[in-house]
Request: fold
Amino acid sequence: MIPGADSAITRDGKALILAYDHGLEHGPVDFEPVPETTDPATVFDVATHDAVTAVAVQKGVAEAYYPSYEDDVTLLAKLNGTSNLWMGEPDSSVNWSVDYAADLGADAIGFTVYGGSNHEVEMFEEFRDAQEAAREHDMGVVMWSYPRGQGLKDDTSPDTIAYAARLGLELGADIAKVKYPGSADAMNWAVRSAGDMKVVMSGGSKTSDEAFLSTVREAMDAGANGLAVGRNVFQRQNPEAILDGLEAVIFDDASVDEALAATGGIEASD
Reply:
């Protein structure tokens, strides 16, 4: 972690990263609720919303679409990822280099690490190489820190999520993206375990506006620095409305009721 290294992908020390690496990680099934989102341009349009501090995509999407949005969107290069067709012990192939991401105009990199996997040692070493290369380009580093593997009994327990956050700090990330561990107290333990490194909550599967904004509010109250979210935004018919609500919670410290009012009071989870 280097203080200020994440400044290009944060606002007032907080982040709202729009993740769109789902086509690789989950397949087209994640686009079925709103078929228009199969077209990356649709999600890049959403990413121009003022609340979004960066959009995280894989190499092919960055190559094809980011040049048309480089004046309006901050690029976070998601360097590794594995398809949902993979059935082995959790691992993630490195799909492009930091140098190439920098050439495309990325301001930060994202890298998944599956702590607890049988491939943990290899993934730590790959992260090391990516993190150190990112420093050469003055790029921020975001770790998707997801403990996972055959020996892990509960990947969302408070201690596991705290460990996930700590891995980010120990290995040199500027921001760690972790799953919500189920309560504000548990989230606070994860945040404290990360020292001065920023911690953001994973958005997860789509829920109702009220449920989603309530969880984000709890995470922020627990000391989180924001959110890295995909489906809970782009699977909505009106993604701009939920981004209005998220902006109110994350950057304006609004209550859930105030945030719901900012969405226009329309439940966007239909």
In short: The mean pLDDT is 95. Residues 159 and 196 are 18 Å apart (CA to CA). DSSP finds eleven helices and eight strands in the chain.
